[in-house]
């Protein structure tokens, strides 16, 4: 795990105690910190985006400000060699990272779901480098992974330096992503709801001001630095239409099917590359060569697709067969890029792919139905939002993106219909977004950034009771009764005094039920021992512990170490009570009620 404490970092030592107290105790202090984090995230977005564009211009011979995916054609030697060289460089960088044994970087979603918002800035910088190389050399991935990662990584560094509480740490990590995404699109509402839906995993009124401050400051910084905004689409001229509702619902279903196919296609491609049994460092080079081959058919498959998307939203729609071919090419290029080891995300790529899907769907439908109620540009925007919501997992995020791109409220309401249908369909049939699907393939049961880390942190070792009432397993019942009068404790643990190993659990009430005047009254305490082969380990979660107790029908179990020595005792009632208390604290944090 790459979550390191920064409490002794130079930044932490440079922050005076009164400033930390202001942020920890005052909502206005938290808003101010969020605004600073958002501004820094916006600055990082500008640097990453600007240098990636310069790399495209240098490596592919583009004109100044010409977008890679928007170019009409590329020389064969550049289309094939640049992505392949980028893959080779990335593979060697990954090999160097592996040999240096850097901890695995933690994604902001994973950090907020499992680690209370703690993540490593060093790991975030590694992700940024990998993503920049991938995108800069033309792989079919977006830069949003780098944007969100560096914004959240810097936010987490500030959070640990200010000694923020768990709920505030999760919030400030969301603020970092909000500033980054808002700055990248010039869309503060999009950035804010990206944080709420994808990074924080919930919405609370108390979180609105910090997240909004971060999103606004990130947008202002990138605007002042001259980063190109994507909120420039106008003249869609959409009018509500009865036929449009059915068309949009059908588009939502179609986008859901495409989204699931894309996500599973990435997983299948990863499995295919692993089956080749090539050196891991060589796989991105092979993937880059394949992506370059697809770029010979259409350069639109390269990079994230920004240029191609903007051309679609202002130009005339392509023929249906061309759109269908581009959908297959872009989906295949993205799957090859991610499956072969390039680093990046599908946020930006899914926007372009969704616009293609929307216009393809409309064109195919118009072959059968004369009045669809949609224009090509409206269909492109609806498909863009619906497919991105299905893949990324943020329905309101994508709906607000359309609103901020067009300023058309009626169109946004219509788009929301397709987004809702796509989101519900994917959630009920597939159950994952792209990020959580990759966590699932890795063995993590994460469905969102909703905080489940508190449950994993609540281990048996943290809640077990000590010291443990013990008795020699060979002691007589008379000795046992003298040591533990009725009502003094519910259970005592029998141990082998020679080896100090666990021998069973004895109910005090059972020991007092035996008549001492009968022959069994002087028998050894061990004869009443229960659950001799059933114990708990300190590293178990409370969920695992209660499942163990339920399976063996025990009200309590002893906790032992690897050598079998007794280190604690945990009852089912105590475990459930502590779990309920922790769940209530998590609920209050979620609602913004504080401590």
Report on this model:
The chain is mainly alpha-helical and 595 residues long. The chain is 63% helix and 5% strand. The protein contains 25 helices and six strands. A three-stranded mixed beta sheet has the order 1-2-3. A three-stranded mixed beta sheet has the order 4-5-6. Helix 3 (27-60) packs parallel to helix 10 (205-225). The protein is elongated. The model is unreliable at 1-6 (pLDDT under 50).
Q: Which consecutive residue ranges, at least 5 long each, have pLDDT under 50?
A: 1-6
Cα(first) to Cα(last) distance is 28 Å
What summary fits the major beta sheet? 3 strands, mixed
Number of DSSP E strands = 6
Task: Report strand order across the widest sheet.
Answer: 1-2-3
Shape: elongated
Offer a quick outline of the entry.
The protein is mostly helical and 595 residues long. It has 25 helices and six strands.
Task: Identify the notable features of this structure and list them briefly.
mainly alpha, 3-stranded mixed sheet, 25 helices, 595 residues, single chain
Task: Please render the helix and strand layout as text.
Layout: H1 10-14, H2 17-25, H3 27-60, H4 76-100, H5 108-114, H6 121-136, H7 144-161, H8 166-185, H9 188-200, H10 205-225, H11 242-275, H12 283-297, H13 306-314, H14 320-340, H15 347-366, H16 376-392, H17 395-406, H18 409-429, H19 434-441, H20 453-457, H21 460-463, E1 470-472, H22 477-483, E2 491-496, E3 501-507, H23 508-513, E4 536-537, H24 542-551, E5 556-560, E6 566-571, H25 572-591
């Amino acid at each position: 795990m790459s979550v390191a404490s920064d409490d002794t970092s130079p930044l932490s030592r440079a922050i005076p105690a009164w400033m930390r107290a202001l942020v920890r105790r005052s909502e206005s202090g938290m808003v101010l910190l969020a605004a600073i984090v958002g501004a820094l995230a916006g600055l990082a977005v500008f640097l990453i985006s600007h240098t990636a564009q310069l790399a495209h211009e240098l490596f592919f011979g583009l004109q100044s400000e010409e977008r890679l995916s928007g170019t009409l054609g590329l020389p064969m030697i550049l289309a094939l060699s640049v992505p392949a060289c980028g893959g080779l460089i990335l593979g060697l960088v990954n090999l160097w990272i592996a040999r240096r044994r850097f901890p695995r970087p933690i994604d902001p979603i994973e950090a907020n779901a499992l680690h209370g918002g703690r993540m490593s800035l060093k790991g975030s910088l590694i992700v940024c480098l990998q993503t920049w190389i991938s995108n800069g050399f033309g792989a079919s991935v977006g830069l949003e992974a780098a944007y969100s990662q560096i914004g959240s990584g810097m936010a987490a560094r500030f959070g640990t330096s200010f000694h923020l509480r768990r709920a505030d740490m999760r919030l400030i990590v969301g603020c970092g992503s909000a500033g980054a995404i808002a700055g990248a699109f010039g869309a503060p509402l999009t950035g804010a709801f990206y944080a709420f839906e994808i990074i924080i995993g919930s919405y609370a009124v108390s979180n609105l001001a910090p997240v909004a401050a971060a999103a606004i400051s990130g947008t202002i910084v990138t605007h002042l630095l001259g980063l190109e905004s994507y909120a420039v689409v106008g003249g869609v001229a959409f009018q509500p239409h009865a036929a449009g509702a059915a068309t949009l619902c059908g588009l939502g279903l179609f986008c859901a099917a495409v989204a699931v196919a894309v996500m599973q296609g990435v997983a299948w491609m990863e499995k295919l590359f692993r089956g080749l049994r090539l050196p891991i460092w060589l796989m991105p080079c092979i993937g880059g060569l394949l992506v370059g081959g697809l770029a010979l058919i259409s350069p639109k498959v390269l990079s994230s697709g920004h240029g191609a998307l903007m051309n679609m939203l202002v130009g005339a729609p392509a023929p249906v067969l061309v759109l269908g071919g581009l959908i297959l090419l872009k989906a295949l290029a993205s799957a090859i890029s991610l499956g072969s080891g390039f680093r990046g995300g599908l946020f930006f790529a899914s926007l372009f792919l969704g616009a293609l899907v929307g216009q393809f769907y409309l064109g195919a439908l118009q072959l059968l139905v004369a009045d669809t109620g949609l224009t090509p540009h409206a269909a492109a925007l609806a498909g863009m939002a619906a497919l991105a919501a299905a893949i990324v997992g943020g329905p309101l995020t994508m709906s607000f993106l359309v609103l901020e791109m067009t300023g058309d409220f009626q169109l946004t309401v219509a788009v929301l219909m397709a987004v809702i249908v796509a989101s519900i369909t994917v959630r009920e049939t597939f159950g994952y977004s792209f990020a959580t699907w990759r966590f699932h393939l890795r063995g993590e049961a994460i469905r969102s950034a909703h905080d489940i880390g508190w449950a994993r942190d609540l281990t048996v070792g943290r809640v077990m009771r000590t010291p443990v009432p013990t008795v020699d397993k060979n002691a007589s019942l008379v000795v046992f009764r003298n040591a533990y009068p009725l009502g003094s404790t519910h259970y005592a643990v029998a141990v082998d005094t020679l080896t100090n190993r666990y021998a069973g659990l004895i109910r005090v009430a059972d020991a007092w039920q035996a008549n001492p005047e009968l022959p069994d009254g002087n028998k050894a305490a061990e004869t009443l021992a229960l659950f001799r082969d059933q114990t708990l380990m300190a590293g178990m979660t409370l969920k695992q512990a209660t499942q163990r107790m339920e399976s063996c029908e025990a009200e309590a179990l002893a906790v032992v170490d690897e050598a079998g020595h007794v280190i604690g005792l945990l009852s089912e009632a105590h475990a459930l009570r502590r779990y309920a208390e922790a769940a209530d604290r998590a609920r209050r944090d979620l609602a913004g009620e504080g401590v």
